[in-house]
Amino acid sequence: MERALKPPRPPTPQLCLAAAVATYPATSRGDPTAAAGAAAEANGAVMVSCHCPVDSTLRARVVEVLAAVRVSVPIFGEVTVRGASRAEFTPRDWLGP
Questions:
Q1: Which letter, b or e, does each residue of 2-19 get, where b requires 16 or more Cβ atoms within 10 Å of its Cβ?
Q2: Rounded to two decimals, what is the model's pTM?
Q3: What radius of gyration do the chain's Cα atoms show?
Q4: What are the residue ranges spanned by the domains of the chain?
Q5: Calpha distance 95→46 (Å, rounded)
Q6: Which of 70, 62, 75, 73 is nearest to 16 (CA)?
């Protein structure tokens, strides 16, 4: 019995999480856009856009990332698969009670 192959998808949830944590300067994670881009590259994708404003307060914030990956599809050849994701990060929760 053959197993069906899962279609490739951009790793956008991982990119969002990398960027979300970096939006809080106290994490020392650097630039959130660079964090998302590095996560994309490590997963064989390209970050297309990242809405991830830095905020030094403890308020919750939402980041949005769009990524793409090129795949080879029989008959159609090379195509670009895009994926988008959002993540919320609350520094107060990260800091603990």
A1: eeeeeeeebbbebbbbbb
A2: 0.77
A3: 16
A4: 12-95
A5: 31
A6: 62
pLDDT tens digits, 30-47:
889 998 888 888 888 899
Q: Which residue has the tokens 């881009």?
A: 37
Structure tokens at 19: 């960027």
Q: Are 12 and 67 in contact (CB under 8 A)?
A: yes
Band of residue 49 on the pLDDT scale cut at 50, 70, 90: very high
d(CA 47, CA 36): 7
Nearest CA to 50 among 90, 10, 95?
Answer: 10
